[in-house]
Amino acid sequence: MWIVYAVLSAVFAAATSILAKLGLNGVNSNLATAIRTVVILLMAWGIVFYTGRQTELAALSRKNWVFLIASGVATGLSWLFYFKALQMGDASKVAPIDKCSIVFTLLMAYFILHEEIKIRGWIGLGCITVGTLLLL
């Protein structure tokens, strides 16, 4: 089932790029990011309350909080830089570079989380990198 969610994530990420590019015309990229963030905030908390998961807040450890907050900061910075790049460049060029996050994620997973990457994974990383360069 995770693969279905991953594909849906990719489809909506693609839609995000196109919809954002259309919406950024004449709008400051930081303001656009703030508007987008409010929408996401309302959606996420709405889902939490709809599913009754808000009671689980008390069970979060200090480590959970530290890493979730750090992840939120990283997400915010990613969005700010992405929207600025999207405002200044073509979506067809910005999005592939943004998707190089796959390369960085696998490298971080290897070095930080000590996850195994098989030879085909290393080849795939090379292909993604070369493919991104060819799209520019």
From TrEMBL:
Coiled coil: none annotated. The chain crosses the membrane at residues 30-52, 64-82, 94-113. Residues 1-135 form the EamA domain. Signal peptide: none annotated. The keyword Transmembrane helix applies. One of its GO terms (cellular component) is membrane. The keyword Transmembrane helix applies. It comes from the Bacteria. Keywords: Membrane, Transmembrane, Transmembrane helix. Gene3D superfamilies: 1.10.3730.20. Belongs to the EamA transporter family. This is EamA family transporter.
